[in-house]
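Note to self: user wants both folds in one dump. Writing first protein now.
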Amino acid sequence: MGGYFPLPHVEMHLYNHFENGVPVGGLIDQVRLVAGIGLLILFIACINFVNLATARSQKRGKEVGVRKVVGASKKSLMLQFLVESVLVAFVSGAIAVGLLVLSIPVFNGTLDKPLVMDLSDLLVWGVAVAFISISGLLAGIYPAFVLSAFKPIKTLKGIVSNHKRPFNLREGLVVLQFGIAIVLIIATLVIRLQINYAGQRDVGYNVSQLIEIPSEGDMDKSYEAFRAELINSGAAISVTRTGWSTTIDGSTTAGVSWEGATPQQVENSSFVLTRTESDFVETLGLTLVDGRDLDYARLPADSAAVLLNETAIKRMGIENPVGKYVEWGSDTYTIAGVVSDFISGSPYAEVRPMLVYASKNYLLNIIVRSNPQRSMQQNLQDIERITKKFNPAYPFSYNFVDQRFSEKFREQEQIGNLALVFHC
């Protein structure tokens, strides 16, 4: 049933996307995106400084000429201009820190996260000083080199340059600056288009009226009675159990084999796993393309049955899949049915091959399709009453699946808003 691998606890939040058991990304991608945008904006600021400093070379040419006449060396002039650049960077950095402190509440409102800048942390100041110093030096190298290279006689006559170079760095920097700005504009538009696309994308199942309740305490041993009373009370029309929430991809497994599969196909196969017991298709409101739903509660033979989604069937290249066999680990399973593709993970990602298998163990999530003919408040009151009856030692907690699914858009919208603010 697939392998296990260790993952440091401190990385679980940021590295939560896996391929073949290897963490390949997740929320860390958004951190890298924001950091990349910030570095690009800093780079644009350095380009502006270089352009402004070199544009003022005409005014400072005579100053350089006089200093060289009275004995100033090229090295001392370069040092002077570099020091000026670093001082300007530190003044800008101080202003930036002040603006940052004032704008943190605004960013907290945009990100919906409690960002805090600890001004008493020496590490923060050490990193800030190093960052500002490096930025000042990098921004001042080219102007220092250009200004210190002026010839005193020509500059005192008002002649800064008497020849045209085949490549003008200032012009190249301007082109690069506008190029980066265009990239940021395009990136902002792409993020907006992604959000619009994902918002209009067909989820593949009916997310409304779905309520998730954690299966904890006594719920596991009294599930059948709990399920029956929910339906008899009129609060629910269908109930199922799953290994985890509907709105997240479960674990991923590789090495699934099937009739006619080549060794390369088996090696490259990767399936999202979902475990359930009965009434999975009915409760979620999935479209059953072929075959039937799993019913392990009433058909013990379904312990060796699986459901596959349409993407899995296409990748496997199986025709008339119902009744055929797949091998997973050391076990053989019968394909009981094929369901239409539905989004269980990110609404921005393509649907991956999915394997739904029957189990009565580790079913930690109860999914209730509430009765649409009654008010949600009335349904929740009955669900809470019945839940407390069968599981009195635990507080009643629940989640609406449609709300959990809509939360998936929040972080992407925050990234889009940040990109828009940074660009402005």
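First done. Writing the second protein, which came from a different request thread.
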Amino acid sequence: MFYGPLLAVLLAACGSSVATTSFKGEEHEVAQAISDLQTNASAGNEQKLCAEDLAATVLGALDRAPGGCNRAIKNQLAEIDSFEVSIHGVHVAPRGAHPTATASVKSIKAGKSRASTVTLVKEGGRWKVSGLQ
């Protein structure tokens, strides 16, 4: 399932914070959105993750699952090992009707490094995670 890997990469950085100080302006806001998601995941706050950190498309898909988004997130959090996520780059697309951004992240799990690209959209003035490539 598409959202399983997304949640595994982004929700599992237990005990670690995402460094956002090297980013400025809109790029900092994107990095901060990933940091906020990580903080909420580390706290086990599935309600806040669903309400504040995930884009409407992700939320809609998770809400169709039995128990909705909160249960899907709770189940993922229970299965995730502790590993760290770091942001290596952020790109904000030129302003348009639907602002989008990507963040290059690296996660380490069981001693293995994995690079991924997180996609985000700006909804209601806030960057929210919409996918993983």
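Dump finished. Worth passing along: The chain has a mean pLDDT of 81.
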